[in-house]
User: Fold this.
Amino acid sequence: MESEAGKQYAAFKEKVKRTVYLDNLSPQVTEAVIRTALDQFGSATNIQFIPNYLEPTSPARCALVELENETQATSVVEMLSNYPFMMSGMPRPVRVRPAEIEMFDDRPVRPGRRIQLYWLDPNDPAFEAAQKLKDLAKKHHAEASCLLKRQLEEEEKLSKQQAEALKLAYQKFETVDSILSDGTSNRLARYYKVKITEDGAF
Assistant:
């Protein structure tokens, strides 16, 4: 008979199958944005942003999204892997892949698994390898921080450009609407001898 711990772990594995991992998210992406963006593929039942433990003050850059079933999760992975997919209008295509057990910080302990920890002596052959991994992690963190700063600067610049373009488009709309509503368009039409339809087209 399967133990209670075994049942919990089995249920957790099923959850992993219907969950996808989204990466390369813009800081402007919120839970509501993700739900709306993925609505065409299925319904997101749970969204968990993964914090950046190297830079706690930095916005979340990735998230685990649980969908209703494994079929929806597979559909998301297939579509977003084959076609550029952006959220919040940012020039940063979202990356996606199936979730893995190790991505969940609240994962249950696998039944029968034992973890042993011990300090490494500086004379231990594994100590040098561990030190190299530590140095490599520091280097990766520095490179990632530099790249993140540059991406944020580019996105802020694009956001301002989009806001300005939207403002100009709205001003044009107000100008055209004003011309149509105050009779200016009819006077211009008579002057230039052109006809205007009911919808304002020449």
